[in-house]
Write a structure and sequence with these properties.
It is a single chain. By secondary structure, this protein is mostly helical. The chain has one domain. The protein is 29% helix and 7% strand. The protein is built from 3 helices and 2 strands; from the N terminus they run H-E-H-H-E. A two-stranded antiparallel sheet has the order 1-2. Helix 2 runs antiparallel to helix 3. The termini are far apart. It binds zinc ion (ZN). Zinc ion (ZN) binds next to strand 1.
Length: 85
């Protein structure tokens, strides 16, 4: 019997997910692709949009949202490595 490893649900590091999400414009503040929404990071709306376009995966999005206790589409995701938010 041949056993193959299941496809891993790999989640990228947060800064990488943020960079990918930044390739779309933001549905919250309409920031243009390539520029962060705020000095601190990007809106949740942008991550949802990036997922719909296939730039980030569902697990990536869940990993980002999992760091929050509560959020709206206007919540800013901080891409700082130390988790400051
Ligand atoms: Zn925004």
């Amino acid at each position: 019997m041949k056993v193959t490893a299941p496809e891993a649900l790999t989640v990228r590091p947060l800064p990488e997910i943020c960079r990918a999400a930044r390739r779309v414009n933001c549905g919250e503040c309409w920031q243009v692709p390539g520029k962060p929404c705020t000095a601190e990071g990007d809106h949740v709306a942008r991550f949802g949009r990036a997922m719909r376009r296939g730039l980030i995966s569902g697990p990536d999005l869940l990993a980002v949202l999992g760091t929050l206790n509560a959020f709206t589409t206007a919540t800013v995701i901080c891409d700082a490595r130390d988790g400051a938010r």
